[in-house]
Recover the amino acids of this structure.
């Protein structure tokens, strides 16, 4: 291959990558997000509201958190509530890269339990949350992992719902049942109620957001954090 042809091919690849990245950012902005230097993309209106209301971050000890999807022992002294949107890139990073380390170090030892709370910020993420409920409790976290692993595939698809239905089929949910789950108003109302409580009561301004809860109190942790950062927070709640 001639040198000029190699240069043209490399230039075409680089240009394609740039267009893909710009398209991804534009897609998120169309969905009501805005770029944030620390958190990636956050919900625009919530992010703006957070700038004017920094006082309502204290969460009472008796606050009623959702407890539908629990990973770990019920008796664990510390609970990590994970508020995630299935279309959020940083949520996928946490769930696929950080959570496995937390599970090995804390969950498997009975020190921490994780409660997953879907906080959908767009229609695709809402459809994903509804289908996750459809697969059953025993397969819930496996399906959540699949949704995050395949996030770019379904998130950037022309018809995200069609792709999500294919994932549900792979998880053993028939097409008729899956489509019924997408129209389940009772489940949708519960998901949206938890979402609204997260935004209004907890003052969550973007995803992912977390609450670390123990007998010492409830601590809101906003944005992506790596394993070491979470480890320090969890150990402080364990009194270590």
């Amino acid at each position: 291959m001639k040198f000029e042809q190699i240069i043209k091919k490399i230039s075409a690849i680089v240009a394609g990558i740039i267009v893909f990245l710009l398209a991804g950012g534009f897609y998120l902005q169309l969905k009501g997000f805005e770029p944030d230097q620390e958190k990636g993309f956050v919900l625009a209106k919530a992010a703006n509201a957070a700038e004017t209301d920094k006082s309502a971050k204290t969460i009472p000890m008796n606050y009623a958190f959702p407890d539908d999807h629990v990973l770990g022992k019920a008796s664990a002294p510390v609970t990590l509530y994970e508020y995630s949107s299935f279309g959020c890139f940083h949520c996928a990073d946490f769930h696929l890269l950080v959570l496995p380390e937390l599970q090995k170090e804390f969950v498997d030892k009975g020190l921490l339990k994780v409660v997953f709370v879907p906080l959908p910020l767009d229609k695709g993420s809402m459809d994903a949350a509804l289908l996750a409920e459809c697969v059953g409790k025993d397969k819930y976290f496996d399906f959540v992992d699949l949704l995050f692993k395949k996030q770019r595939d379904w998130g950037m698809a022309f018809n995200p719902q069609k792709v999500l239905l294919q994932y549900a089929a792979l998880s053993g949910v028939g097409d008729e049942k899956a489509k019924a789950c997408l129209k389940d108003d009772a489940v949708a109302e519960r998901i949206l109620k938890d979402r609204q409580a997260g935004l209004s009561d907890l003052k969550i301004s973007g995803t992912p957001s977390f609450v670390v809860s123990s007998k010492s109190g409830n601590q809101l942790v906003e944005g992506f954090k790596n394993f070491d950062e979470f480890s320090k927070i969890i150990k402080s709640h364990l009194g270590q």
